[in-house]
Amino acid sequence: MLINLTPADLDAFVSVAETGSFRQSAQRLGVSQPTVSARIRHLEAVLKVKLFHRTTRRVVITEAGERLRARVERMVLETRALMAEFREEAHLQRGRVTIGASPSVAASFLPGVISDFQHRWPDVEVVLLDDFYGQVLDRVTRGEVDLVVSPFVSDEGAFIFEPLMEDVFRLAVPRGHALAGRASVTLAEVAAENLIAMPPESAAWAVVRTAFAAAGIDYAPAMLTRYSLTLVSLIKQGLGVGLVTEMLSRAIDMRELTLLPVADADLTRRIGIVRARDRALSPAAQAFHELLLRAGDP
């Protein structure tokens, strides 16, 4: 059941309870004395109790009034505290931003942005959730993250995608491999090797498989791994070759490997910010969003 009480009614009540005077309360609130009286009468009519004993000399709060005063003052304190929190969040003096990311972006591009953000706004907590492409998009849909930084290969209208940069896959082979001395390789040559790849739920799978399909070549990796670091370690041990992005290659130790461009295939992917179309960003998320845009390719 809705109760027809207004903030002005409660302000008048608290002021009269504190001053013991309708006249002083009117002066404090900047309204006429009849207005204060009308607000108190409205409160009493709605609550069906007497809040003050009125005499010609003074106003004394009743037992019911004391009970209401205790509740209202607690509510006012909590409201003021909440308003202070909102002000601090608006000025980035507190708050949280939750970022989703694909593993390769989380390992390479994002750490620098997070470091910059925390240097500027040390009182705002940054939470990073890295997961495969489909999973991070699901987090956006469920509202578990403010935004995602990831490759994007979907046309779903529920998301806003803002490109930040392009990244390209190159073939990683051990230094002693037969292809290591080449300036480039073809997609058919890649397919002829023991190819180690990321699984179907990764964004990498979608990009590479599309390139293979465009060339009319069957995409059939010999081994799958969920982690880029594992993929690189397997290649270093001579267990196969793999397609690694330039972005990731700058973040992990590739000294024992050679990276070769694939000359006859488009293995470029766009990386950017993905966010829900139907949700506004918090002040902290908006600030992080702006830093991402500055950090992306011009």
Structure report:
- This protein folds into three domains: 7-78, Winged helix-like DNA-binding domain superfamily/Winged helix DNA-binding domain (Arc Repressor Mutant, subunit A, Orthogonal Bundle), CATH 1.10.10; 96-164 and 277-295, 3-Layer(aba) Sandwich (D-Maltodextrin-Binding Protein, domain 2), CATH 3.40.190.10; 166-269, D-Maltodextrin-Binding Protein, domain 2, CATH 3.40.190.
- Helices cover 45% and strands 21% of the residues.
- The protein has helices at residues 7-19, 22-29, 33-47, 63-90, 103-108, 110-120, 133-142, 187-191, 203-214, 228-236, 246-249, 283-295; strands at 52-54, 59-61, 96-101, 125-130, 147-151, 159-174, 195-197, 223-224, 241-245, 257-260, 268-276.
- Strands 3, 4, 5, 6, 7, 8, 9, 10 and 11 form a nine-stranded mixed β-sheet that branches. It has a two-stranded antiparallel ribbon with strand order 1-2.
- A hairpin with a 4-residue loop joins strand 1 and strand 2 (59-61).
- The model has no long low-confidence stretch (mean pLDDT 90).
